[in-house]
Write a structure and sequence with these properties.
mainly beta, Immunoglobulin-like, 24-stranded antiparallel β-barrel, 6-stranded mixed sheet, fimbrial usher porin activity, Fimbrial_membr_usher_CS, FimD_plug_dom, Fimb_usher
């Protein structure tokens, strides 16, 4: 601040410059004084370690010294430090002396503050039971990077059947289904098709789905162009369109928690351990300090139930509490939105001779939003030429028993207007589970499925939206060991007033040790009327073999089945077999045997009935071109990786399960990886050549869905390495600890015992400089000849 000084002369001695300087200083005096006063009000910031009631919080919090021993802090930082500020000052800066009952002692030399907090002001110690990566994602941290690659995948399934009738006539058939994918970092192009014989035994090509899909994991959004299938609430009917769809896909972010998960609040008089048990299995455990605590997002299984919370303090005293909970996929976490927007032309008769896109463009929009953890709102709309339909709904939690959903919709089309009312629920009443749905329509309620149904494939009256649908399912575990009973009721009334009513009863229990007996009764009345009663017995024969018997009676008469099956200990490579005897009007015997390996799956089946015989062969697998090679593999339905080890015959494992050994190219394809999740891939260095050099033996890979990534372990199969033993002028081994510079490169090598140096990247002619801290130095020169597969030893190299 500029200083303004007054001279000793009187006014009569003031010169014009002196008078101007005095006026300038007077003008500045007011603003500068105000700045000094504001600075005193703002105070100085102190960054202090916080202790609450003598307990370190392991936090550094900013406090502001306002002078006269008064401190202030941000309300949010106070909560993080374990203090609940006054409700009236929930945000912004809070003066500590304005929080009733709070005491403190500032020890500035130690940069600490010791807070004395009454129980009423203690903020709960908050724990998040979700994995660390989940908590980080919700805090907005960077999304884990996805490992992309380029390649082509062709899944195939080929079926060859032959049949000989009792009269000696023969027949055969050949069919194949294919799923091809071209993937790259921008997305994946998928094309599915089948080859099937027509009436003239000529293979015909039939296209299934063709689409391009790009995924954006950061926003959990995917865009699909081509053939799409719409989605919506439970009462809506999906349709196939050829067009564009933008939708939320939470599968792109497996680290996010999108469902409301239960939590627990409690208080501990002493430092304690908290354990949470569900179905006698410990699902979570953590240490908590003395005082109130809160645990969020407990990892409990879906459905409703009762968990037990055990709090055990340092003295061994236990407190047990029951925690009723509900985890439902029908609800969204507060603030979470799910949506799907689609537009295109309806596709009719897929896979048939009449496969085509209908005239007219239609759109479908669905939105779900978690207003609270107990209430999820829904909106659904469909529109296009001669159609406008929209509906609203909500799903709400019923205490800890279950959920219920209520929706209403209206439609307008050329043939009239209509409305829909839908109610569904899933609740637990004690040990019983009850679910039901009631849907009623009035007028001429219409959707895209009804308006665009193919009359050659579906009767117009059956394509219309049902007038009435009522369903009820009830299941109850019984007191007997492993027994349960269930009931199912359904009543359907089509648009043409035809009705279909069915009722089903079942009872099952364990018998004869681990065997199970199931009794079933079913009655159906309406378009197709039938009645059935049956009994089924399933008997495990050890860990890998099973046998079963089934008897049923329908209107057509009695029918009996007897089955036996087995499988190997390992699934891949492994085998399985199945035999079945079926007696209805006639006796039929059939059997199958399958072998599944890294290259695919082969199944051979045979059937004999009334003098006729049939034999079939099924081959499933995939051909993959990716990661610089071409591979044969079993079907790839999710993600995969091409692992490049750089040496043949090295064992590779995924999630600690052996996959196989690398081929001659030093590569292997690893299928069955989880898309957008971290998959651990490792190699066994014992299989590497002795002269190979490897940096790491385990890596993590996150491939995209329906795509693959390349994992390079950077192994140098021949690192031109050798064990060099240096000797001095007297022929004795050099002293341990000398610094080694090889061919002018300092890799921080040292002379080891017996004067040995392990050297890499050797040349045909090499030079080693050795120096010691006491000033001694020497130089060694030697020749090197690479011997692949062995560790070269060069001994007796003089260092002079």
């Amino acid at each position: 601040m500029p200083a303004c000084r007054q001279g000793s002369r009187g006014l009569r001695h003031f010169s014009i410059p002196s008078l101007l300087a005095l006026l300038f200083c007077g003008a500045l005096a007011g603003p500068l004084a105000a700045q000094q006063e504001a600075g005193r009000q703002e105070g100085r910031d102190l960054y202090l370690e916080v202790f609450v009631n003598g307990r370190p919080m392991n936090l550094i919090t900013r406090f502001t010294d306002l002078g006269d021993g008064t401190l202030s802090a941000d309300a949010g930082e106070l909560r993080n430090s374990g203090v609940l500020p006054d409700a009236a000052a929930a945000r912004g800066e809070v003066r500590l002396d304005q929080i009733p009952g709070l005491g403190w002692r500032l020890i500035e030399p130690e940069q600490t503050i010791r807070l004395v907090v009454p129980d009423a002001l203690l903020a709960p110690h908050v724990l998040n039971a979700a994995p660390d990566n989940v908590a980080a994602a919700e805090e907005g941290e960077a999304v884990p990077a996805v490992d992309h690659g380029y390649g082509l995948v062709l899944n195939y399934g080929v079926t060859l059947d032959g049949w000989q009738g009792a009269d000696g006539a023969t027949d055969r058939s050949l069919g194949a289904s294919f799923d091809s994918r071209l993937f790259m970092p921008l997305g994946t192009l998928t094309h599915g098709f089948v080859l099937a014989e027509d009436d003239r035994d000529v293979l015909r090509y039939r296209r299934l789905d063709t689409y391009w899909r790009s995924s954006f994991p950061g926003r959990a959004v995917q865009v699909q162009l081509g053939d799409i299938a719409t989605r919506g609430p439970g009462w809506s009917r999906p349709v196939r369109l050829g067009g564009l769809m933008v939708e939320r896909n939470f599968g792109l972010r497996p680290d996010l928690v999108t469902l409301p998960l239960p939590g627990f609040e409690g208080s501990a008089a002493l430092p304690s351990t908290v354990e949470v048990f569900a179905d006698s299995i410990r699902t979570y455990a953590a240490d908590v300090p003395a005082g109130p605590f809160r645990i969020d997002d407990l990892p409990l299984a879906g459905g409703s139930g009762m968990a037990r919370v055990v709090v055990r303090d340092v003295t061994g005293r236990e407190t047990q509490m029951d925690l009723p909970f509900l985890v439902s996929g029908e609800l969204l976490r507060r603030g979470v939105a799910d949506f799907a927007l689609a537009a295109g032309r309806p596709r009719l008769g897929i896979g048939s001779d009449s496969d085509r896109y209908a005239e007219g463009t239609f759109g479908v929009a669905t939105l779900r939003y978690g207003l609270t953890d107990a209430l999820t709102l829904m909106a659904h709309a469909e529109g296009g030429e001669d159609l406008a339909m929209a509906g609203l709904g909500a799903t709400f939690r019923i205490a800890h028993l279950g959920t219920a959903s209520l929706s209403m919709a209206r439609s307008r089309a050329d043939w009239g207007e209509g409305h829909l009312l839908d109610f569904s629920t899933q609740i637990a009443l004690g040990r019983a589970q009850v679910s039901g749905r009631l849907t009623r329509t009035g007028g001429r309620f219409t959707d895209i499925a009804a308006l665009t149904a193919d009359p050659e494939l579906v009767e117009p009256d059956l394509a219309g939206f049902p007038r009435h649908l009522a369903q009820l399912a009830f299941s109850l575990p019984l007191a007997d060991r492993g027994s349960a009973a269930s009931l199912f009721l359904s009543d359907l009334r089509h648009a043409d007033a035809r009705t279909e009513t069915s009722i089903g009863l079942s009872y099952n229990r364990q018998v004869l040790g681990d065997a199970s007996l199931t009794l079933t009764a079913l009655a159906q009345r309406g378009t197709q009327s039938d009645r059935m009663i049956g009994a089924q017995l399933h008997v495990p024969l050890g860990a890998r073999h099973d046998a079963g018997l089934m008897v049923e009676r329908r209107r057509a008469g009695w029918r009996q089945y007897a089955t036996a099956s087995g499988r190997s200990k390992d699934r891949v490579p492994g085998w399985s077999w199945r035999l079945q005897a079926d007696r209805g009007e006639h006796l039929a015997l059939q059997g199958s045997a399958a072998r599944e390996g890294r290259l695919g799956r082969a199944e051979l089946a045979a059937r004999v009935s009334q003098g006729s015989r049939g034999l079939g062969l099924r081959l499933d697998g995939s051909v993959v071109a990716a990661g610089g090679g071409v591979f044969l593999s079993r079907r790839i339905d999710d993600a995969f990786a091409v692992v490049d080890v750089g040496a043949p015959g090295v064992e590779v494992s995924a999630e600690n399960r052996p996959v196989g050994r690398t081929g001659r190219s030093g590569k292997i394809l690893v299928p069955d990886l989880r898309a957008y999740e971290a998959n651990s891939v490792s190699i066994d260095p014992a299989g590497l050549p002795l002269d190979a050099a490897v940096g790491v033996t385990r890596q993590s890979v996150r491939p995209a869905h329906h795509a693959g990534a390349r994992v390079d372990f950077g192994v140098q199969a021949s690192a031109r390495e050798a064990l060099v033993a240096l000797v001095g002028p007297d022929g004795a081994a050099l002293q341990v600890g000398g610094k080694v510079v090889l061919n002018g490169i300092d890799d921080e090598l040292l002379v080891g015992f017996d004067g040995e140096v392990f050297a890499l990247d050797l040349k045909d002619r090499n030079e080693i400089l050795v120096s010691y801290p006491d000033g001694r130095a020497c130089t060694a020169r030697f020749d090197y000849a690479d011997e692949p597969g062995t560790l070269t030893e060069i001994r007796g190299v003089p260092c002079l």
